[in-house]
Write a structure and sequence with these properties.
Layout (H helix, E strand, L loop, with lengths): L3 E4 L5 H8 L9 E4 L1 H7 L1 H9 L3 E8 L3 H14 L3 E5 L4 H18 L5 E5 L7 H6 L7 H15 L3 E3 L5 H7 L5 E4 L18 H7 L3 E4 L1 H4 L4 H14 L3
Parallel strand pairs: 1-2, 1-8, 2-3, 3-4, 4-5, 5-6, 6-7, 7-8
Helix pairs in contact: 4-5, 5-7, 9-11
C-alpha cells in the first residue's frame, strides 16, 4: 500500500512550514509540491523538505516536445524526489524521453529514480467537457484507459487518475501499474473543483495505490488530527 500524500498547495514558503511544523519532527510525510510553490521558491524548497526526511511528489505535469521534457526531467531526476508527472496527452515519445531523462538525472546524482506518473484526464474535467471542449470521441472511461495504456507502453510507472476509474484500469491496463488518486474527500465534505471524488475507504476498495489529499487537510482546524484520521481510514480499509 502506498502513501497518503499531503498536497501542500499553499501560497508561500512560510505557510508551508507553518503546516509541516505542526507534525512531530520524527514523522516522515509524503508531500506534494505543485506549480505554485515550485515556481515561487524553486528547487530549494524540495531540497529543504528532503533534508527534513520527507518524501516528495513534485507535480509539475510537464507537457512539451519530447526533447524539452527530457531535459526538464533530467533536472528533476537529480533532485531525488519520489514521484513526478507528465501529461499523457503529450504522447508516447514524450513519455519515453521523460523517463529517460529521469533515469539519467538520478544516475548523475546517485539517487533513486523518481516514479514517473502520467496525468490522464484531470479530475476537474466532466464527461460533458471531455466531449464539448476536447472534442474527444471516447467516453471518459475509455479515454482514461486509452491514455493509461499509452503511458504504460511508453515506460511510465503509473497514472494519476480518479479513484472511480481504478477498477476499470486494473482490468484493462493491469495491476502491475501505480494508480495514484486525487479527488479524495472525507465523507460529507464539499467536492470543491473536483468532479469525480471518493473517500479514502472507497478509494482503497477500488484499488488505489496512493492518495493525494490537499484542502481537507491543510484547511482543517487541526491538520495533524485530520491527516491521521484519513490515514487510519486509508490504511485500515479492507482490500
Amino acid at each position: 500500500m502506498g502513501p497518503l500524500i499531503i498536497s501542500l498547495d499553499v501560497a508561500q514558503r512560510a505557510d508551508l512550514f507553518q503546516l509541516i511544523d505542526q507534525f512531530d519532527a520524527n514523522e516522515t510525510l509524503t508531500v506534494k509540491i505543485g506549480m505554485g510553490m515550485f515556481y515561487g521558491e524553486g528547487p530549494q524548497i524540495v531540497r529543504d523538505l528532503l533534508n527534513m526526511g520527507h518524501h516528495i511528489f513534485l507535480d509539475l505535469k510537464l507537457h512539451d516536445i519530447p526533447n524539452t521534457v527530457e531535459n526538464g526531467m533530467r533536472q528533476i531526476g537529480r533532485l531525488g524526489v519520489t514521484y513526478t508527472t507528465v501529461h499523457a496527452l503529450g504522447g508516447a515519445q514524450m513519455i519515453a524521453q521523460a523517463k529517460r531523462g529521469l533515469l539519467s538525472g538520478a544516475q548523475d546524482a546517485g539517487v533513486a529514480p523518481a516514479r514517473l506518473l502520467a496525468v490522464t484526464e484531470l479530475t476537474s474535467i466532466t464527461p460533458q467537457e471531455l466531449q464539448a471542449e476536447q472534442n474527444c470521441r471516447l467516453d471518459m472511461a475509455d479515454q482514461v484507459v486509452s491514455l493509461a495504456q499509452l503511458a504504460k507502453k511508453a515506460g511510465a510507472d503509473g497514472v494519476i487518475t480518479s479513484p472511480l476509474e481504478v477498477p476499470t484500469l486494473q482490468k484493462q491496463v493491469g495491476k502491475d501499474f501505480l494508480y495514484v488518486t486525487p479527488g479524495i474527500r472525507p465523507h460529507g465534505a464539499p467536492q470543491d473543483d473536483q468532479a469525480r471524488t471518493a473517500t479514502p475507504r472507497e478509494a482503497a476498495l477500488k484499488g488505489s495505490n496512493a492518495l493525494v489529499i490537499g484542502r481537507p487537510i491543510i484547511q482543517a482546524a487541526n491538520p495533524v488530527n485530520t491527516y491521521h484520521q484519513l490515514l487510519e481510514e486509508w490504511e485500515n480499509a479492507e482490500r
